[in-house]
Amino acid sequence: MSTASTEPLTISAAAERVGLSADTLRYYERIGLLDPVPRTAAGQRLYGAAEMARLEMVMRLRGTGMPIQDMVEYARLVREGDAAVARRRAMLAGQRARLLGRMEELEATLRYLDRKIATYDARMAVEAG
Fold first, then answer.
1. Which CATH number belongs to the domain containing residue 26 in this structure?
2. Domain extent for 63
3. What residues does the HTH merR-type domain cover (predicted)?
């Protein structure tokens, strides 16, 4: 997923780029998952490169199944800077381990499905002929 953009994006354009709703982006900002987004004089949010990079991070973490509370904590630790590097690393390592466990479960499920499909293919081949 690339969220790179040379021009700042409106909230609707940013939301479309990452596959979320504008309401979700507002919610993420409200709960501290996203930093306050710069606004025009008229109050319209403009998502620049930094905001889009943060959104990419959010989408990657979301894709791992990380709970939103943990993502908010991770964002808070990012704001702390270098003082929180070890804690951020620990959070990501823990999430990585959970993701590997999910991958193993999915692989086992795929093997099961493959066996069932092969069984049905064999039955249909016998019936056909």
1. 1.10.1660.10
2. 11-100
3. 8-77
Q: Left, alpha or beta for 4 (phi > 0: left; psi -120 to 50: alpha)?
A: beta
At 58-117, the pLDDT tens digits run 999 999 999 999 999 999 999 999 999 999 999 999 999 999 999 999 999 999 999 999
Residue 22 DSSP label: H
Looking at the DSSP assignment, which residues form a beta bridge with residue 39?
45
* Residue 114 belongs to a domain: no
pLDDT of amino acid 5: 57
DSSP per-residue letters across 46-85: -B-HHHHHHHHHHHHHHHTT--HHHHHHHHHHHHHGGGGH
What's the pLDDT score for residue 1? 59
pTM greater than the 0.85 cutoff:
no
Sign for the CA dihedral angle at 44, 47, 48, 50 comes to positive
